[in-house]
Design brief:
The chain is mainly beta. Helices cover 9% and strands 31% of the residues. Strands 31, 34, 35, 36, 38, 39 and 42 form a seven-stranded mixed sheet that branches. Strands 9-8-3-2-12-13 form a six-stranded mixed sheet. The protein has a six-stranded mixed sheet with strand order 29-30-28-27-44-43, covered by helices on one side.
């Protein structure tokens, strides 16, 4: 079983490790006189390699056996990203005094010489050039990503960083590792806690606990290339649950017809049994993973596959993909007819989306493909399917993906999408379509277009979007001519207030982005009086040099609005403290108000800064702000590493209006709708509820001072109209969510994985009576978009006393 956030395109390799019995405190552990990581090799099976597998060798320089029960060898890429995970190989047994212990890792497609019989076997595809291997007391994955953090983890017994590894012992990693060279400790097993000094490049020499070394022939358990089918069929591999009953086991001579080949990214091919069984739960197709090697088969080949069954998890919370890895392929014949595809349409879909696991994993639940849509897709994983005349519900992405629905009557929006309306009512007809044909341009479609004719391919699974159709034959796109909306201009007595997420805008962006966003404000929004902007960055964007101002960014944006026919806007914002507001590292994201000084005035009250809280000030004439612009309780833990709401006091026709611009914390970290844990945890929701409560409290303080105060709260709240976040924001009827005043099929401003949904909102206080509200669809439904959010606007009649 493998869990990974990104699939390596390197060939599988092997690593040898020597153990150190002492833990690693703040400066790595004192040199070990017993167990150490003695050799690490990540080039096994690579081009030019002799050995077929990676390995890690452990050694014991002590006088007593070193017990490895409950220990593990763990691997981390040499330059780990935020999403990199330590990969774990569990150990058993012990290392004899003066002895060795061999951990075999993943096999590649190259090499001719097998390892000696390993003492433990993992599935880690290590890099030949750079990585970190740790011997760990326990099998829980490490979380450290730096040398200092790993040194502070008492579970780490010994650690070897090689190549350009960031995590290593001493001043530098061991150097010289390659497809043909390991890094190995000297015969004395000396451990000075300096990888660069202690380990040197050498020809790999794996030794197991029995003292055996590599000899000629094939890897133990390698079935070779049989010419007759073995006893295992694809449906035996897929089984009746999401996890193969043969996970981790070798299989020999599995027969099938090659139905599709993938030559880029995660390379490999799919086979399907031409003689299926009668059980709808047991899939007949499976992916054969070839790593970085180009598949040496063609569609229509009849093959026998030998290798190892593996459940590959794209991430820790997704479902898995059943695969055969380290394959040996025998081609029996070519040009064979392909198994008939299963037709996916509304009639084939079960009514329910996914079984409940009570919040836990559904991996072990028996599949019920007639009851649950995700069970049906899982039972079809790796098999040929066909869809026809499917409506586009998510526009073509930059990665050549398009979302369609096979159930056109399922929660349709007015403009052709599929509405996401509750946590329990999932849109099971959505499926992402990709193409395996790299010679043909991928169709560029918008929501409401139709992928006409038939599209045929195999069902696959990915961390983003879940089940998808890898098309071998792609239908043609029928353009339904979706148009960008233009809202009406406000009337003289109406105050127009809009919200627009401009997606990490900074002064270094191309002029085309400024121009398109500006047209959205000047033309599509008809030049609102006030625009609350989300995702304005500092002037040099992701460059982290202490810059926090956004003057150049806002000057370019407002100039572009004028050029597009709009007014000359002024702006107000509160610059964040450097690195304290989350978002893109170095970007110093913030909320900003634009306003048209010819129609509305801004009330400037000094003292507002990144750390000062704005408060409501009661007066005989109503309520004012202590500072304007200001921030809501910026010291509150609710806003830690997150955007702080911006509050401004405006006057329209002499009457006060309070505007609160928001950008709540994102949904990053939530478990996916299609994942292995059901029902999925929404861990990010906790912080948004806290943030909503802070804003609600502030609004109530304004209303306590003046119950008729006009308050417009708006922005990217990163949550749905039916969410606990919205309940916390509207508590006590302090605010009215305007999205729910629209017809149901128009309640969306964002499209994600083929679901039309609402993350952006405008809410008004009871002091605002008559209003006209509109979501202006100009981005989210289109392949060509300046932002992934649609703006919104409310036009209000401002009446009553000044």
């Amino acid at each position: 079983m493998r869990i990974s956030r990104s699939r390596s395109v390197l060939l599988a390799g092997a690593v040898a490790v020597t153990l150190s019995a002492t833990a690693l405190p703040a400066a790595f552990a004192a040199p070990s006189a017993t167990a150490v990581i003695s050799e690490v090799y990540g080039g096994g099976g690579n081009s030019g390699a002799t050995l077929t597998r990676d390995f890690v060798e452990l050694a014991n320089a002590g006088s007593a056996a070193y017990d490895l029960s409950g220990f593990s060898v763990q691997y981390l890429p040499g330059a780990p990203s935020a999403g990199s995970l330590w990969q774990v190989s569990a150990l058993t047994g012990s290392v004899a005094p003066g002895g060795r212990y061999l951990v075999a890792q993943a096999a590649g497609t190259g090499g001719t010489v097998a390892l000696p019989a390993p003492d433990a076997t993992g599935t880690v595809a290590m890099s030949a050039a750079s990585g970190t291997v740790a011997l760990v007391s326990g099998t829980t994955p490490l979380s450290c990503k730096t040398a200092a953090d790993c040194a502070a983890d008492a579970r780490v017994v010994d650690l070897v960083g090689y190549g350009s590894a960031v995590v290593r012992e001493g001043s530098g990693p061991a150097t010289g590792a390659s497809a043909t060279a390991s890094v190995a400790r000297a015969a004395s097993l000396a451990d000075t806690d300096d990888n660069g000094a202690d380990l040197s490049p050498a020809a790999p020499t794996p030794v197991n606990a029995a003292g055996q070394t590599s000899g000629g022939g094939t890897d133990p358990g390698d079935p070779g290339n049989p010419t007759e089918p073995g006893t295992v069929r694809v449906h035996d591999i897929q089984g009746t649950t999401r996890v193969s009953p043969l996970d981790g086991k070798a299989v020999t001579g599995v027969p099938g017809i090659v139905t599709a080949v993938r030559t880029t990214g995660s390379r490999g091919f799919w086979i399907q049994d031409a003689t299926p069984d009668a059980d709808a739960r047991t899939g007949e197709g499976v992916f054969v993973y070839t790593g970085s090697a180009a598949p040496a088969v063609a569609v229509g080949d009849s093959v026998l596959i030998s290798g190892k069954v593996d459940e590959y998890y794209p991430s820790a919370t997704t479902q898995s993909i059943t695969e055969i890895t380290a394959p040996r392929t025998t081609v029996l014949s070519s040009g064979n007819a392909l198994p008939a595809p299963v037709v996916l349409d509304a009639a084939a879909l079960p009514a329910a989306y996914v079984p409940s696991g009570g919040g836990g994993s559904i991996d072990a639940l028996p599949l019920e493909p007639s009851a649950y849509a995700l069970d049906l897709y899982e039972a079809l994983e790796g098999s040929r399917v066909q869809i026809a005349d499917t409506r586009v519900t998510g526009a073509t992405t930059a990665y050549d993906e398009i979302w369609v629905t096979v159930d056109p009557e399922q929660n349709p929006t007015r403009r052709g999408g599929t509405l996401y309306s509750s946590y329990t009512d999932q849109n099971s007809g959505r499926i992402k379509v990709m193409s395996l044909d790299t010679t043909r341009p991928f169709p560029v479609g918008n929501v409401g277009d139709v992928l006409s004719g038939t599209t045929t391919g195999v069902i696959d699974y990915a961390s983003f979007g879940g089940y998808n159709l890898q098309a071998t034959e792609l239908g043609t796109l029928t353009d339904h001519h979706l148009r960008r909306e233009v809202t009406r201009p406000q009337k003289g007595g109406e105050l127009a207030v809009a919200t627009y997420n401009v997606e990490n805008l900074d002064a270094l962006d191309d002029q085309a982005k400024f121009d398109t966003l500006a047209e959205g404000v000047a033309v599509n929004l008809s030049s609102p009086d006030i625009v609350s902007l989300e995702e304005i960055q500092d002037d040099n964007g992701a460059v982290s040099d202490g810059t926090v101002g956004s003057e150049a960014t806002l000057q370019r944006f407002t100039d572009a609005i004028v050029a597009a026919g709009g007014p000359r806007y002024d702006w107000r914002y509160v610059a964040p403290q450097d690195g304290q507001d989350g978002g893109e590292p170095g970007g110093n994201i913030r909320n900003v108000f634009l306003f048209n000084p010819d129609r509305v005035s801004f009330v400037d009250r000094p003292g507002g800064d990144a750390t000062t809280a704005v408060t409501a000030v009661p007066t005989k004439k109503g309520v004012t702000l202590s500072v304007s612009p200001g921030r809501i309780d910026p010291a509150s833990g609710a806003w830690a590493d997150s955007r702080k709401p911006l509050v401004g006091e405006f006057r329209f026709h002499g009457k006060p209006v309070f505007v609160i611009g928001n950008h709540f914390t994102s949904k990053g970290g939530d478990q996916p709708l299609h994942g292995r844990y059901q029902e999925p945890s929404r861990s990010s929701e906790t912080k948004r509820v806290q943030q909503a409560a802070e804003v609600n409290t502030f609004v109530k303080s304004l209303l306590a001072a003046d119950k008729s105060a006009r308050v417009v709260t708006l922005g990217d709240l990163n949550d749905f109209a039916f969410s606990p976040t919205m309940s916390a924001l509207t508590a006590g009827k302090a605010l009215k969510p305007l999205i729910t005043t629209l017809p149901a099929d128009e309640q969306y401003s964002y499209v994600y994985e083929g679901n039309s949904q609402t993350l952006d909102h405008i809410l008004t206080s009871p002091g605002i009576g008559r209003f006209d509200y509109d979501v202006v669809h100009i981005n989210a439904e289109f392949a060509d978009q300046a932002s992934d959010h649609d703006p919104q606007i409310v036009r209000v009649k401002v009446e009553g006393r000044p």
